[in-house]
Amino acid sequence: MSKYETVIGLEVHCQLATKTKIFCGCPTIFGAPPNSSTCPVCLGLPGALPVLSRQAVEMGMRASLALNCEVRPQSIFARKNYFYPDLPKGYQISQYDRPLSEHGYVDIEVEGVKKRVGITRVHMEDDAGKSIHDGFKDSANYTYVDLNRSGTPLAEIVSEPDMRSSDEAFAFATEMKLLMQFAEVSACDMEKGQMRCDANVSVRLHGAEKLGDKVEIKNLNSFRFLKMAIDYEVERQIGILESGGKIVQETRLYNVDSGETVSMRSKEDAHDYRYFPEPDLLPLRISDEWLASIRNVMPELPPARRKRMLEDYGLREYDAGVLTQTREISDYYERVAATAQDPRAAANWVMGDLMALLKAENKEVSESPVSPEHLGELIALINKKEINGKQAKEIFPKMVATSDSPRTIVDRDGYKQISDTGAIEKIVDDVIAANPKQVEQYKSGKTAVIGFLVGAVMKASKGQADPAAVNELLKSKMA
Q: Is pTM beyond 0.70 here?
């Protein structure tokens, strides 16, 4: 492996979050009955003419800006000709030599090393339908075609061959997903086919300038499979070269069950698709004013939000990364921090107790039974010394079970912390008198025993004493 260098480029197909398809008014509904969301345009019937969706173009522009691309003032749609049973027109309407945007980048980090991966282009296209293979029965193999997806708007994002490992490809795809979600371009639900990746993989000797012959691994629908497929393919290619063989340029599929890539077809070049300008669509012109209007409504993206969390909230880079895993988590955290007026404590509670709860119940943060304002209020009660940390850990499950506010639970269940020094002092005196052996051990230098004494005071106060005040009093009385 150390003898060779891996070269990886990704093509990411991202379904745009439009209400209708890109060239017709059919709705983009996941799970609709087969062939129920179709019309003459997406069925490819003779004489039906496409009409470009303005919303799809604006989604494409948002994707381009999120990827730091230069949006072209004029782009051209083209016909990409090939045959497949679920491609009713016999061609795909895509973009070729004049795409929507070009020359962008995405910054990634792997094991503490930061890297910039170039974006070659972003182009728009319509999706094909879906073939459903039903296996062998009645002495025949059956395949059904569902054209509900036909015409679904896609942004295809093509990277430069800048990645050198499957870990870098995984990081790139993950950051890409975050950017598209934060920019409100796509939900990127891979189980619903809203995002999928093709990986172009080749190997070459270290120090060589010429790229090796590449193999495309098609339709990877999870980032874990993306990483596994790349790792297998790299080993396969190195094995062929080491045995004196030659890499064949082809398209392969990843077999999840066997963990291997298998040949699908010989790899086509651009001329095989016989691209030519789409005769039924005018060139797409994007004015400076239109682009500016989209730029002005772009939300804060993950890199900017992470930077702000570091600078304004004093969080660690790790914390900022966890809290920007999704836009929903980021928004939830910021509402907690605003209520608590303690960003670091808010980060600890969200990443700890809240995420543990959601994981145990298999819920998204949007389904949290505890509102961000209630969690922020709980943290604020700790900071005001109305309750202590141990009490907060007992109150949180009650908030989950009842959806009550922490104030309601504190007042109802008697969680008020004892902060009065006089009241605590009496309990401390009783504990010291009842534990002469431990007091003598502390005075002789075994200071760790103070933990036992603090615990005794907390037990006697039913957990309501201020732990900091207990510590101070014990130390002063045993000095």
A: yes
